[in-house]
From TrEMBL:
Pathway(s): Amine and polyamine biosynthesis; putrescine biosynthesis via L-ornithine pathway; putrescine from L-ornithine: step 1/1
Active site: 361 (proton donor)
Organism of provenance: Myripristis murdjan
Organism superkingdom: Eukaryota
Keyword Phosphoprotein (UniProt): yes
CDD domains attached to this UniProt entry: PLPDE_III_ODC
The organism's taxonomic lineage, starting at the top: Eukaryota, Metazoa, Chordata, Craniata, Vertebrata
Cofactor(s) the protein needs: pyridoxal 5'-phosphate
This protein's GO CC annotations: cytoplasm
Protein name listed in UniProt: ornithine decarboxylase
């Protein structure tokens, strides 16, 4: 195992009886006393723990390998490393990040089917063996540049019902798989399994069962060719909040029964997944401030006698984060973000049709095309929940607008629970491989010691 370097990030403990939402209020109050009023995040690391426990309950056979690209914050990666998760890394930098936290290379899958040669060499030199491929050219690169790769064949899925489609870019069609496996054999490479990704924002759980059944076919081909096929990787795409059409617990029974049918427990195949958004979306709340406002009067309403005053105007709010920053998820991840109000509206509050815009000078920088909000003022706050996935990870500082600060919080019981899992693993039903993960994680125990300072704490 690599020598761990200290995990460095700051977080605060939630005092008893306080929630992350209370911290949002507290930060708003602090900030409202100054002129800054910069946008900021509150991240509840306890929410990541909750997701992990929920995962273990719903998908007890499947070890999560967190997809780092979704949110590469050290705090999130460290919590997940402590919980015994594995990691899906797509680049040298992501591998470096995960390994800098002391994660053993056998808990990493290099899940990018199209890799740069120098990065394959990097993986080889750092003990990362599991990696995906979906083409013959990739096989030749790996044969040349890696000493001991354990290859996973990424197959295409029917992602026509997903919001973010991936199988145009990645995944071998079923009919190409036998040829690829034969080629791998000729090159003397080891193929250990199959992976897929149904696409993100999947709206039909049958996509998973179809893909699992396709994977079974490819397993059979591999076994015919003499490979010891022992890893099934069912990818990501699990929803990160319950604010979606198809909820997590509506998908998981479909997956479990497909696994029981095509990969029953006694077949000895290890099953992993690569959840990204699932783990982080709901942990992050983004708070933005209204920096400018326009009132657009409509012309017809003057003649409308019955008008209650709500139909005569449209409001445009300009806030201090936008699509070049945190809201890049609107462009890249097809996200729909709607604010909640910071102050509870009065019972007779009048709501107006509104649009919400980011701070840059680009006309594209629009967060919400249409929603309904009260008459807010410059300096007021808007709160966006579920902002942890594909937000901070891909944001830029275009036009000079800086990324919001992130305040990490966790309750003491949640922190203790994380440490307990790190030391002892999750209680049954445990999977065989789990013990190895715990051992690897607890080599770093000293970096996870209970901090002594009560509030603003450095984990070192
Ligand atoms: C992006 C990605 C994931 C994570 O997808 P989510 O929708 O965030 O779960 C998993 N695996 C691969 C290969 C990916 O590219």
């Amino acid at each position: 195992m690599n020598t761990p370097t200290p995990a460095q990030f700051e977080f605060s403990f939630l005092e008893e009886g306080f929630s992350a939402r209370d911290i949002v209020e507290q930060k708003i109050n602090e900030s409202s006393m100054t002129d800054d009023r910069d946008a900021f995040y509150v991240c509840d690391l306890g929410d990541v723990l909750k997701k992990h426990l929920r995962w273990a309950r719903a998908l007890p056979r499947i070890t999560p390998f967190y997809a780092v690209k979704c949110n590469d914050s050290r705090a999130v990666v460290m919590i997940l490393a402590s919980l015994g998760a594995g990691f899906d890394c797509a680049s040298k930098t992501e591998i470096q990040l995960v390994q800098s936290l002391g994660v053993d290379p056998n808990r990493i899958i290099y899940a990018n089917p199209c890799k740069q040669v120098s990065q394959i060499k990097y993986a080889s030199a750092h003990g990362v063996q599991m990696m995906t491929f979906d083409s013959e050219v990739e096989l030749m690169k790996v044969a040349r540049c890696h000493d001991n790769a354990k290859l996973v064949l990424r197959i295409a899925t029917d992602d026509s019902k997903a919001v973010c489609r991936l199988s145009v870019k990645f995944g071998a069609p079923l009919k190409a798989c036998r040829g690829l496996l034969e080629r791998a054999k000729e090159l003397g490479l080891d193929v250990i399994g199959v992976s897929f990704h149904v696409g993100s924002g999947c709206t039909d759980p049958e996509t998973y069962s179809q893909a699992i059944s396709d994977a079974r076919c490819v397993f059979d081909m591999g076994e015919e060719l003499g490979y010891n096929m022992n890893l099934l990787d069912i990818g990501g795409g699990f929803p990160g909040s319950d604010d979606v059409k198809l909820k997590f617990e509506e998908i998981t029974p479909v997956i479990n029964s497909a696994l029981d049918k095509y990969f029953p427990v006694d077949c000895g195949v290890r099953v992993i997944a690569e959840p990204g958004r699932y783990y982080v979306a709901s942990a992050y709340t983004l708070v933005v401030n209204i920096i400018a406002k326009k009132v657009i009067m409509s012309e017809q309403s003057a003649s409308d006698e019955e008008d209650d005053g709500t139909n005569d105007r449209t409001l445009m709010y300009y806030v201090n984060d936008g699509v070049y920053g945190s809201f890049n998820c609107i462009l890249y991840d097809h996200a729909h973000c709607l604010p909640t109000l910071h102050k509870k509206p009065k019972p007779d509050e009048v709501f107006y049709p509104c649009s919400i815009w980011g701070p840059t000078c680009d006309g594209l920088d629009r967060i919400v095309e249409q929603c309904s909000l009260p008459d807010l003022q410059v300096g007021d706050w808007l709160v966006f929940e579920n902002m942890g996935a594909y937000t901070v990870a891909a944001s830029s500082t275009f036009n000079g607008f800086q990324r919001p600060d992130i305040h990490y919080v966790i309750s003491r019981p949640a922190w203790q629970h994380v440490q307990q899992i790190c030391a002892q693993g999750l209680p049954a039903p445990a999977e065989e491989s789990h013990l190895a993960g715990v051992a690897a994680c607890c080599g770093r125990e000293s970096s996870l010691e209970m901090p002594t300072k009560p509030c603003h704490t450095h984990v070192a």
